[in-house]
Design goal:
This is HIT domain-containing protein. GO terms for molecular function: catalytic activity. The protein is α+β, with helices and mostly antiparallel strands. The chain folds into 4 domains: 132 residues; 128 residues, Glutaredoxin; 155 residues, Glutathione S-transferase Yfyf (Class Pi), Chain A, domain 2; 102 residues, HIT-like (HIT family, subunit A), CATH 3.30.428.10. Helix content is 49%, strand content 7%. The protein is built from 14 helices and 9 strands. The strands form 2 sheets. It has a 5-stranded antiparallel sheet, covered by helices on one side. It has a 4-stranded mixed sheet with strand order 2-1-3-4, covered by helices on one side. Helix 4 links the parallel strand 1 and strand 2. Helix 7 runs parallel beside helix 9. It starts with 5 loop residues before the first helix and ends in a 9-residue tail after the last strand.
Length: 540
Amino acid sequence: MVSTPLGSKLRLRTRHHEGRETGSPGGVQKQQQQQQQQQQQQQEQQEQEQQEQEQQEQEQQEEQRQQQGTITITRTRTTRRTTTTTRTIITRRTTTTTRTRTRKRKKTKKKKNNNNKKQVLLGAAGLWLASSQLRWWLAPADQGSEAAFVGSNKDGSHPVLRVARTSGGRAASTGRLGRRATAPVLYDMPVSNNGARVRLIAYAKGLDASALVIELPSALGGLKSEEYKALNPQGKMPMMKLPSGQAIYESDTIARYVVDAFSDVGPSFVPGTVEARAMDNLIARLHDVYVAAIQGAMYKAAPPFGTFQSRWEALAKLRKQVRVINGLASEEGPYLTGADIGHSDAALFPTMVFMQHVLPKFMQPGWEFNAEEAFGPKLVRWWKFMTSGSVPAATKVFEEIDGALRKWDASGRWDSILYAGRQDTAERTIFNMIISKEIPSEIVYEDDRCLVFKDINPVAPVHMLVIPKRREGLSQLRHSTQDHEYILGHLLRVAGEQGKAALGDNGFRVVINDGADAGQSVFHLHVHVIGGRELTWPPG
């Protein structure tokens, strides 16, 4: 389906608003006049019936008195005078009542006319507020605000979505005046690639602020606030509050809600064939389970990264899973599953914005980043199409995320992150050559993380060295960080296992020397496992 331009949506919404609030002016006035005429006729008929009934009662009373024969001529004259007076009074009262009712009808009519004028004025005011609200949403975001969405305008603002800020820094609520009461609210931030899959769908469908409201989590006090966690106990974004008040979270769930709720506008995000739909679901699933789950290794200061404690291992897994997705991508394109854009495109594209910006930071010194090697040829071709301007929604998402990442660059976010800003620049040691098998050694044990070999200058019958295969800046124990917790624990576990394997129930000593004055001669962290003889304390 062809998405409706934002301006067309505004015109359609304005006409609908006019029809709902004011109706046709001529038709409304004619209907009111008919109602007033009917009411006036009913009142006059009731008054006439009341007068006739009173006259009949008086005539009946006179006939009864004449039949009794007790009424004298004088009394008859008096009665006639009284009757005449009574009739005169009744007539006057009736006339007065009629005039009073006529005045009331005129006042009521005047009041209704005034109400009609007020309705017209209120309708016009409503239209003005609605159009003002849309203009507010369309206004460029404040570049000085942290909440400003980085968008496709020349000044870096977003042309549709923005969050207002008060002088105190909290999200302002004035923007709600023109919003449709039934619009769902998405709580998200520009840098969020998971939330961006929802935004990409919304942009592609041409949804404006009257259909979907976007707020920062700070509007509810932040991700860890009680108000936010009452809606999403996970304390994560994105989250969407539905018109019913029910909150839903997890980006795939929210994305599918938007596709379903707005299925009548824009692209369907449902590929045209059964096989393409299956591949679309598979790629989206692989992204969520194996890529998004560990993407924190690219930017988080410390582990864990999903199920990984090692940043290096998480990044290696990330690259592997991206290559798996490359193998599933369509040969023909231009989208991941063929001719139609789908959920997989919306899911993977924002994450690719992250990867193409961040992964080159983790290259070893002297190495160059090769996109085709990192992502695969089909994903590189798809990436070029998505960023060519052929998909405006993707262009907006790219500008939002990339702009936020550049702010992270400026703030020095990666300066202290291992393998990115912080590299192991110390000189190679003899241990590096033993690991690479450049120098022979008597290896006792080896796995992906460490190597155990016999010390060439033993101080006891059993003397082994346990060393990490990747030094990761650990020339000395004092340089350890949270990034090293996994390897330090692994080294000690292996040391215990190898000591027990070599000495059984006999004791052994585990030693880590830190610094030259402590006996360290090779500046590549290593653990000594010593045993097979009686050891004294303190060591000499």
